[in-house]
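dumping these here so i dont lose them again. two proteins, back to back, each one seq then structure tokens. dont judge the mess
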Amino acid sequence: MSEDRVEVTLQQQEGYRFAAHYRNGTPSLITDEPAPLGGNQGPSPSQLLVTALANCLSDSLIFALGKFRQPSDGIRTEAVGLMGRNAENRMRIVGVEVTLHLGHPAAAFERLERILDQFEQFCTVSQSVVSALPITLKVLDSDGTLLKG
């Protein structure tokens, strides 16, 4: 994977269950919707989004701690995606609450205030989502004919 691209290929297995294939040896992932739509055989797209936000924020904190040579072990993260309906009554993720738990008491850290003031800026995912995410959509048929885009 080059630094300027994130590539995934989804292959439908059955119903709403897909195998997500990544490049460069990254293990594949099964995604699915919960019942009654799917079989709950893997995380749903909403769960993946919340996971990506929580994981990226965790990674950013670890990075910032490491930058100041502070302990970064034992971090635990909890995240909740808040579901709601938009003006058209369509289900949306309307907010995400993330709680990061450090693995040590605050006294064990030097420059913790500075670290906590800046670590969010290193999170690619949250900083992308919070400022809106432009999406270019294309729809092709099985022959490769562009139907929308």
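---- next one ----
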Amino acid sequence: MTQIGHDIADFALDIPGREGARIRLSWASATDIGLRRSINEDSSIAQAPIFAVADGMGGHSSGDLASDAVVSRLADVAVSHFLTPDQITEALVNATADIEKVTDTSMLGVGTTVTGAALALRGIDPCFALFNVGDSRTYLFEDGRLTQVTIDHSVVQEMVDAGILSAADAESHPDSNVITRAIGFGATPQPDFWMVPIRTGQRVLICSDGLTKEVGAEDLTGMLAAGASSLDTANSLVDAALKAGGRDNVTVVIVDVLEAPDDREFDEDIEDTAPRRN
């Protein structure tokens, strides 16, 4: 597994074109191999302006190489304080090419999920560009409410969307690990994006499914609402996944908004800028 970046307790960034306006963030990451795996195939990046988790697939060390390719390419495009969806997509395209180079033709394929948040601008308003490919997830916790922003690219999610399966039964379904989009496997990346205005008090939770398959939304909400630091919260979430069974690698990134301009320039709190389905 690869971890890029360092935990930061207080990071300040001026907003271009807005004199005296800034955002302040705190962030931290945590990971564990879990109780049943021999290799940690998750990777993460937590350094402004990009925060992401990738959950590799492919067996042995190949999944690790795939997830490493994604976070490394995301680090490559993080050359300015704010990114665009096009830059993130470019990184995922380059990662796909990297993954093809490490794919053994005898394998069924090598790939990875990826989800995360990038600092972005809509005009002169700061926002998070949340993105997703696969079934790792990004959540927004604000005003005591937890919202799963990303939508899983999975067989069971399509069944839920079609009304065939209830959301409550999705996690225990035998096809819960079958995803319909990934980075790698010779496919063109198809990330979804959501633009979320940055506001004081927000917490962003980015995680692999090693967390969400063990810890339910109610418990996630309680731990995010406890008011602990980003580092303590990240560690607590990983510990909770292990106590619940730890069947998979678990990786968590927490981003806290300590300060942001007090305005609401967006017409909607969350703007979905890409289709979720082909």
